[in-house]
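Appendix B. Raw example, untouched.
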Amino acid sequence: MGWKDLLGFGRKENPADKGPDPLHDLTLSGLQAGDMVDFDLKTWQVQARHRYDWGGGDISFEWQLKSHDDVIYLQKDADDEAEWSISRPIAFGRLGPEIRDYLSEHDDPPEEIVFDGVTYCIEEMAGGHFYKDDRGPGKEFLSWSYADDSGEKYLSIEQWGETEFEAAVGGPAEEYQFTNILPGSH
């Protein structure tokens, strides 16, 4: 071993020694608060990343994305393969007073809901725990998922506590629709 070896001259760097490359190792699944991503001709900033625990090892993730004039939620469900969807929150009252009345009377929403001229049929009901920012103690909730006949439009209702309800509409998404992922300052 000569003096060049001791000082590291001529030594080739092993790429594995550097760790993850923040500009090349960005994936949709790896989005974190502060990251930026392009979708639907807009640039979105990740506001939060939440986790849903449905029990039995069934976990899904949700990212809140904000553009200059809109907020959407990107969800990833991983059964056998990752399934992505996008949803937009709507005021629960927009579903009509009959939905709240039906819930009060039956403890479940109706099997079919018509919203903005689209008929949605219930696909599943589930309960789980929600972890805001993927931390802290989980908050219990119930969820009802609906889809139209084509399976291209979704509607969901979530119940938090006895009387708090949220609703959202959306549809499936593909990972390739999201481009130009840039890291935030995390």
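End of appendix B.
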